[in-house]
Amino acid sequence: PISAAALNKANTSPSPYKTINGLEHYDKVVDIDQSPIGRTPRSNPATYTGLFTPIRELFAGTPEARSRGYTPGRFSFNVKGGRCEACSGDGVIKVEMHFLPDIYVQCDVCKGKRYNRETLEIHYKGKTIDEVLNMTVEEALEFFDAVPAIKRKLQTLMDVGLSYISLGQNATTLSGGEAQRVKLSRELSKRDTGNTLYILDEPTTGLHFHDVNHLLEVLHRLRNHGNTVVVIEHNLDVIKTADWIIDLGPEGGDKGGEIIAQGTPQQLARARGSHTGKFLKKLLAR
Fold this sequence. Notes:
Blueprint: H1 2-7, E1 28-32, H2 45-49, H3 52-60, H4 63-68, E2 92-95, E3 103-106, H5 129-133, H6 137-143, H7 148-159, H8 176-188, E4 196-201, H9 209-224, E5 228-232, H10 236-239, E6 245-249, E7 258-263, H11 265-269, H12 275-284
Parallel strand pairs: 1-4, 4-5
Antiparallel strand pairs: 2-3, 6-7
Helix pairs in contact: 6-7, 7-8
């Protein structure tokens, strides 16, 4: 909150503090947390990362779409025209449950496809807009291999270990860790200033070891471009690659909050009283 208020002019209320130094080295702060990228079926990885706009433009540029006078807006499920009006482009109908959380059921008219029949008659490389949205990131990367603007954004999703999610996957079905990595992907696709402070809270949650390595490559790439990356993490495979570690303790929650030790991984491994250092020492000795 302190850095966000100073750099991004955010309307935040930081906790009391004495002083903070070094903010003059940054032009912005990016807090990549695990909150949802959206709370309705309209939000998905394609819309959040900006992939959906160039995809809609491709469909609007096909000969059949042009002959019908269809614009990119025709292929949006957020506006009238090409969407299914029975579900307003959601693909699902919300059913309010008294005393229980609301549930969503598939739309009987479009069968979950979000669009009306006329829109689904348009094909790009043999696929409808619905079929493209149902592709996984890995499948879409191969499908759009010849479209640089789309390929670049898809590659960042691959880099953060999200090859398996679908482009149009409902945001409410993404885990906190997945939502966080979608946000990281969007930041990676932006122009890098080299003066950004990135803050991530446990980004390896739910990741396979192979994907952790991919994520580390991404974080190191940000670091190598001159940015500062602050990661709150318990995964020792991540901790051991840090340039500088601050070990908080002695326990968790309200029994912690004190700086037990700080330094490079090698220095922390020699620090007395550091639980992290004790396990780090074993890992570094391998």
